[in-house]
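Per-residue structure
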Amino acid sequence: MRNIGKNKFTSWLTIILIVANIATLLFYWIGNVKHARDNSPKEFLATKLNFSTHQKDLYFDLAKEHNENAKKIREQIKINKDIFFQLLKSDKIIDSIRNSAAAKVSSSIQSLDILTFEHFKKVRAICTVEQKPKFDELIQRMVNAVNNPQQGPCYSMKEDTTQTEYRK
Protein backbone atom coordinates (compact mmCIF):
# COMPACT_ATOMS: atom_id res chain seq x y z
CA MET A 1 0.00 0.00 0.00
CA ARG A 2 2.89 2.35 0.75
CA ASN A 3 4.31 1.88 -2.77
CA ILE A 4 1.03 3.01 -4.32
CA GLY A 5 1.11 6.19 -2.23
CA LYS A 6 4.74 6.83 -3.12
CA ASN A 7 4.02 6.24 -6.82
CA LYS A 8 1.10 8.69 -6.77
CA PHE A 9 3.24 11.28 -5.04
CA THR A 10 6.09 10.75 -7.51
CA SER A 11 3.70 10.91 -10.45
CA TRP A 12 2.15 14.17 -9.27
CA LEU A 13 5.53 15.67 -8.52
CA THR A 14 6.75 14.74 -12.02
CA ILE A 15 3.67 16.29 -13.63
CA ILE A 16 4.08 19.50 -11.63
CA LEU A 17 7.75 19.76 -12.59
CA ILE A 18 6.96 19.19 -16.29
CA VAL A 19 4.26 21.90 -16.23
CA ALA A 20 6.64 24.27 -14.42
CA ASN A 21 9.35 23.64 -17.03
CA ILE A 22 6.93 24.27 -19.89
CA ALA A 23 5.72 27.48 -18.26
CA THR A 24 9.29 28.66 -17.72
CA LEU A 25 10.20 27.96 -21.34
CA LEU A 26 7.09 29.79 -22.58
CA PHE A 27 7.83 32.87 -20.48
CA TYR A 28 11.45 32.84 -21.62
CA TRP A 29 10.47 32.48 -25.29
CA ILE A 30 7.80 35.20 -25.14
CA GLY A 31 10.23 37.54 -23.38
CA ASN A 32 12.92 36.98 -26.03
CA VAL A 33 10.49 37.58 -28.89
CA LYS A 34 9.34 40.86 -27.32
CA HIS A 35 12.92 41.92 -26.58
CA ALA A 36 14.05 41.20 -30.15
CA ARG A 37 11.10 43.12 -31.59
CA ASP A 38 11.69 46.15 -29.35
CA ASN A 39 15.44 46.23 -30.15
CA SER A 40 15.25 45.79 -33.90
CA PRO A 41 17.17 48.31 -36.03
CA LYS A 42 13.82 49.40 -37.46
CA GLU A 43 12.41 50.21 -34.00
CA PHE A 44 15.71 51.77 -32.95
CA LEU A 45 15.73 54.21 -35.88
CA ALA A 46 12.03 55.10 -35.48
CA THR A 47 12.55 55.75 -31.77
CA LYS A 48 15.74 57.78 -32.12
CA LEU A 49 14.18 59.97 -34.81
CA ASN A 50 10.94 60.39 -32.84
CA PHE A 51 8.85 59.37 -35.83
CA SER A 52 5.16 60.23 -35.69
CA THR A 53 2.66 57.42 -36.10
CA HIS A 54 2.25 58.31 -39.79
CA GLN A 55 6.02 58.38 -40.32
CA LYS A 56 6.36 55.00 -38.57
CA ASP A 57 3.71 53.49 -40.82
CA LEU A 58 5.48 54.80 -43.93
CA TYR A 59 8.87 53.71 -42.61
CA PHE A 60 7.72 50.20 -41.66
CA ASP A 61 6.18 49.77 -45.13
CA LEU A 62 9.47 50.89 -46.69
CA ALA A 63 11.42 48.52 -44.44
CA LYS A 64 9.17 45.59 -45.32
CA GLU A 65 9.59 46.27 -49.04
CA HIS A 66 13.35 46.70 -48.63
CA ASN A 67 13.70 43.45 -46.66
CA GLU A 68 11.76 41.49 -49.29
CA ASN A 69 13.92 42.85 -52.12
CA ALA A 70 17.15 42.49 -50.15
CA LYS A 71 16.33 38.86 -49.35
CA LYS A 72 16.13 38.07 -53.07
CA ILE A 73 19.47 39.76 -53.72
CA ARG A 74 21.12 38.01 -50.74
CA GLU A 75 19.94 34.68 -52.14
CA GLN A 76 21.53 35.60 -55.48
CA ILE A 77 24.77 36.59 -53.71
CA LYS A 78 24.83 33.20 -52.00
CA ILE A 79 24.30 31.40 -55.31
CA ASN A 80 27.01 33.46 -57.02
CA LYS A 81 29.47 32.85 -54.16
CA ASP A 82 28.73 29.13 -54.22
CA ILE A 83 29.46 29.05 -57.95
CA PHE A 84 32.63 31.09 -57.44
CA PHE A 85 34.02 28.83 -54.71
CA GLN A 86 33.01 25.67 -56.59
CA LEU A 87 35.83 26.63 -58.95
CA LEU A 88 38.28 25.58 -56.21
CA LYS A 89 37.37 21.95 -56.91
CA SER A 90 39.04 22.19 -60.28
CA ASP A 91 42.79 21.68 -60.58
CA LYS A 92 42.92 24.00 -63.57
CA ILE A 93 41.14 27.28 -63.01
CA ILE A 94 40.91 29.51 -66.04
CA ASP A 95 41.46 33.15 -65.08
CA SER A 96 38.65 34.45 -67.28
CA ILE A 97 36.12 32.06 -65.71
CA ARG A 98 37.33 32.92 -62.20
CA ASN A 99 37.15 36.66 -62.98
CA SER A 100 33.68 36.30 -64.47
CA ALA A 101 32.39 34.42 -61.41
CA ALA A 102 33.95 37.01 -59.08
CA ALA A 103 32.37 39.82 -61.14
CA LYS A 104 28.95 38.22 -60.70
CA VAL A 105 29.45 38.16 -56.93
CA SER A 106 30.57 41.80 -56.98
CA SER A 107 27.63 42.80 -59.15
CA SER A 108 25.17 41.17 -56.75
CA ILE A 109 26.76 42.90 -53.77
CA GLN A 110 26.65 46.19 -55.66
CA SER A 111 22.92 45.65 -56.31
CA LEU A 112 22.33 45.15 -52.59
CA ASP A 113 24.32 48.28 -51.72
CA ILE A 114 22.35 50.35 -54.23
CA LEU A 115 19.06 48.94 -52.96
CA THR A 116 20.04 49.84 -49.38
CA PHE A 117 21.19 53.31 -50.43
CA GLU A 118 17.88 53.97 -52.21
CA HIS A 119 15.97 52.64 -49.20
CA PHE A 120 17.67 55.06 -46.83
CA LYS A 121 17.15 57.86 -49.35
CA LYS A 122 13.40 57.14 -49.15
CA VAL A 123 13.53 56.99 -45.35
CA ARG A 124 15.33 60.34 -45.23
CA ALA A 125 12.60 61.80 -47.46
CA ILE A 126 9.95 61.05 -44.83
CA CYS A 127 11.98 62.82 -42.14
CA THR A 128 11.16 66.36 -41.13
CA VAL A 129 13.75 69.11 -41.47
CA GLU A 130 14.52 68.73 -37.75
CA GLN A 131 14.95 64.94 -38.02
CA LYS A 132 17.27 64.95 -41.05
CA PRO A 133 20.50 65.93 -39.21
CA LYS A 134 19.89 63.21 -36.61
CA PHE A 135 19.12 60.71 -39.40
CA ASP A 136 22.36 61.63 -41.18
CA GLU A 137 24.33 61.13 -37.97
CA LEU A 138 22.70 57.77 -37.20
CA ILE A 139 23.23 56.45 -40.72
CA GLN A 140 26.88 57.47 -40.66
CA ARG A 141 27.38 55.68 -37.34
CA MET A 142 25.67 52.57 -38.69
CA VAL A 143 27.88 52.63 -41.80
CA ASN A 144 30.97 53.00 -39.62
CA ALA A 145 29.86 50.07 -37.44
CA VAL A 146 29.28 47.86 -40.49
CA ASN A 147 32.62 48.84 -42.03
CA ASN A 148 34.58 48.12 -38.82
CA PRO A 149 33.14 44.82 -37.55
CA GLN A 150 36.32 43.84 -35.68
CA GLN A 151 36.01 46.96 -33.52
CA GLY A 152 32.38 46.27 -32.69
CA PRO A 153 29.57 48.76 -33.06
CA CYS A 154 30.46 52.36 -32.34
CA TYR A 155 27.13 52.94 -30.67
CA SER A 156 24.66 51.03 -28.59
CA MET A 157 21.00 50.85 -29.38
CA LYS A 158 20.31 51.45 -25.71
CA GLU A 159 22.46 54.50 -25.12
CA ASP A 160 21.85 58.03 -26.29
CA THR A 161 23.85 58.34 -29.50
CA THR A 162 24.23 62.09 -29.08
CA GLN A 163 26.54 61.37 -26.15
CA THR A 164 28.55 58.64 -27.87
CA GLU A 165 31.94 59.25 -29.43
CA TYR A 166 33.09 57.62 -32.62
CA ARG A 167 35.69 54.90 -32.23
CA LYS A 168 39.01 55.71 -33.72
